[in-house]
Automatic annotation (TrEMBL), chain A:
GO terms for cellular component: ATP-binding cassette (ABC) transporter complex. Keywords: Cell membrane, Membrane, Transmembrane, Transmembrane helix, Transport. The keyword Transmembrane applies. InterPro entries: ABC-2_transport_permease, ABC2_TM, ABC2_TM_bact-type, ABC_2_transport. It is found in: Cell inner membrane; Membrane. This is Transport permease protein. Belongs to the ABC-2 integral membrane protein family. GO terms for molecular function: ABC-type transporter activity. The chain crosses the membrane at residues 20-43, 55-82, 102-128, 140-161, 167-186, 198-215, 221-245. Its main location: membrane. Residues 19-248 form the ABC transmembrane type-2 domain.
UniProtKB/TrEMBL annotation, chain B:
Pfam families: ABC_tran. This is ABC-2 type transport system ATP-binding protein. Keywords: ATP-binding, Nucleotide-binding, Transport. The keyword Nucleotide-binding applies. GO terms for molecular function: ATP binding; ATP hydrolysis activity. The lineage of its organism: Bacteria, Pseudomonadati, Pseudomonadota, Alphaproteobacteria, Rhodobacterales. SUPFAM superfamilies: P-loop containing nucleoside triphosphate hydrolases. Residues 5-234 form the ABC transporter domain. InterPro entries: AAA+_ATPase, ABC_transporter-like_ATP-bd, ABC_transporter-like_CS, ABC_transporter_ATP-binding, P-loop_NTPase, YD.
């Protein structure tokens, strides 16, 4: 294992984050606050408790997931797309590193950033509502796994993208709708039966449900299914990245 | 083992069907400076990219320090430093950080003293805390070299190090290459400037249309350069070179209207005086004489044309 390479990639990627630490910190705080003003105070006051949890608290896990998923994808996709765009990827390709080391460096940094944002949002939410965490170990595990798997997914998007527009395409067209329709702001039991069935095809449902379970002990789908979903998604992304580096797809001529 | 790089029958066809390398064989000796000379699109960059791992090889093999660049890529790549043709640098990194990054990428432990030595050698020490984006083009090129040297490679590839560089910087670059050779680094550089190959290389390889047309000691190539031709225009046509002039290896050209004599300018005697005397004795009347020298440029163009034919 080339640990020195993993370290320098990770440190360099994190340095970019720290250069803009104020923005990195302030933007999730402001957007979370806005969500609470709109959903918590304005709309939430008209909604009764959802499965025994006040609406304001109910949306906290979904809100964290929404930001963590988009941040993980954005950070990881940009992290690998940028060297491709400016040409510095030559160095990664000509160095004695394998795909796992490159992925650990880039994805590790992107996941760390996403985790940081997730914790900032959790902290901000705690200022507005009473947040209880029934299963802290499960909560942290779900959070970390989501950061990792969506960073991996972002990494793949970054390698696939051949323009900045494409870089934004998947997060905007696929991920945001899936997350919004995945029960971030509602329980799927609130939907008409037909939509409840359709929603089960949305993988994000399983993540948000499992994550919410670790907070309040209530879930839309069995917790084991949630775990299986996140493990499956991580494995799928890992396999894709392994294949990319084996064949050199879109990175090695 | 004398050869640090061994390339055997290397072929590469890009996805679009373009055949960039058509069976290249090349051995590079440890400690030498090899210049790969060729026009744009000849396959120089593809060759370097394949050795360094940026491009997947089609078929054939490349060994660096005895390690196969595909199956033993870690051992092979540790020995290689690459200075790319384009100035590919992260614009917001500090000079010393980006150089230290490269060292880490190659699995070497941090070594600030070594980085300082490299930066001083390349006159970059004063700029160590500057961001890449603030540097001039020449300075950026030096940063690329510093990055390539950061992990103490045994073989350094310079892909067109002086393309689009002013005369002064080009001379600097040549000095840097000479210094590195002193330190025992093997250097392979590509260029399409003949004078560059002439100024710094030990051996010169000519590449065109994906084929290596020749690899020769520079001295031998220069010897060919040292040859001059004397053309003697005759008043009366000859049907054959007279027997008395056989020892001069004359060629009968222009339909027998002229004789051509090839001689070495560096020899003690060129033989011209004796030849002219013998011509007079044989009763041959001259109308004009002229000399011409083939330049490396001519040799090169000739080879490239032959290769294309």
């Amino acid at each position: 294992m080339n640990w020195a390479a993993i370290r320098v990639i990770y440190v360099t990627e994190m340095a970019r984050f720290f250069r803009t630490i104020a923005q990195s910190f302030i933007s999730p705080v402001i957007s979370t606050s806005l969500y609470f003003v709109v959903f918590g105070a304005a709309i939430g006051s008209r909604i009764n408790e959802v499965e025994g949890v006040s609406y304001g608290a109910f949306i906290v896990p979904g809100l964290i997931m929404l930001s963590v998923m988009t941040q993980a994808i954005t950070n990881a996709s940009f992290g690998i797309y940028f060297p491709k765009f400016i040409g510095t990827i030559y160095e990664l390709l000509s160095a004695p590193v394998n795909f796992l080391e490159i992925v650990l460096g880039f994805v590790g940094a992107a996941a760390t950033k996403a985790l940081f944002i997730g914790l900032v949002i959790l902290g901000t939410a705690a200022l507005f509502v009473d947040v209880q965490i029934l299963h802290p170990v499960a909560m942290i595990s779900f959070l970390v796994l989501t950061c990792l798997s969506f960073s991996l997914f972002g990494f793949i998007i970054g390698i696939w993208a051949q323009s900045f527009e494409q870089l934004q395409l998947i997060p905007l067209l696929v991920v945001t709708p899936l997350v919004f329709l995945g029960g971030s702001f509602y329980s799927i039991s609130m939907l008409p039966p037909i939509w409840q069935s359709i929603t089960l095809f949305n993988p994000v449902v399983y993540l948000i449900s499992g994550f919410r379970w670790s907070f309040f002990g209530v879930a839309d789908v069995p917790i084991a299914l949630s775990l299986l979903a996140i493990a499956g998604f991580t494995a799928l992304c890992l396999a894709a990245v392994w294949w990319i580096f084996r064949t050199g797809w879109r990175i090695r001529g | 083992m004398d050869n640090i790089v061994e390339i055997r029958d290397l072929r590469k066809t890009y996805a679009g069907g373009f055949e960039a390398l058509k069976g290249v064989n090349l051995s590079i000796k440890k400690g030498e400076i090899l210049a790969l000379l060729g026009p744009n699109g000849a396959g120089k960059t593809t060759l370097i990219s394949t050795i360094c791992g940026i491009t997947n090889p089609g078929s054939g093999s490349v060994l660096v320090g005895g390690h196969d660049v595909v199956t033993q890529y870690r051992d092979a790549r540790r020995l290689i430093g690459l200075v790319p043709q384009e100035i590919n640098l992260e614009p917001f990194s500090k000079v010393k950080d980006t150089v230290a990054f490269s060292r880490g990428l190659f699995g070497k432990p941090r070594n600030p003293a070594l980085i300082e030595r490299i930066l001083r050698q390349l006159s970059l020490w004063e700029k160590r805390d500057a961001r890449v984006v603030e540097l001039s083009g020449g300075m950026k090129r030096r940063v690329l070299i510093a990055k390539a040297l950061s992990h103490e490679p045994e073989v350094l590839f310079l892909d067109e190090p002086t393309a689009g560089v002013d005369v002064e910087l080009r001379k600097d670059m040549w000095d840097i290459v000479a210094e590195l050779k002193e330190l025992g680094t093997t250097i392979i550089l590509t260029t399409h400037y003949i004078e560059e190959a002439e100024a710094i290389a030990d051996r010169i390889g000519v590449i065109s249309s994906g084929q290596l047309l020749l690899v020769e000691e520079k001295a031998e190539l220069m010897a060919r350069l040292g040859q001059k031709r004397l053309q003697i225009d005759l008043q009366d046509k000859l049907s054959a070179v007279p027997d008395v002039l056989v020892e001069y290896n004359l060629e009968l050209v222009e339909d027998g209207q002229a004789l051509r004599y090839t001689y070495d300018t560096r020899g003690e005697r060129t033989g011209i005086t004796r030849l002219l005397g013998d011509l007079a004795s044989a009763g041959i009347t001259l109308t004009d004489i002229q000399t011409e020298q083939s330049s490396l440029e001519e040799i090169f163009v000739g080879l490239v044309k032959e290769g294309a034919a």
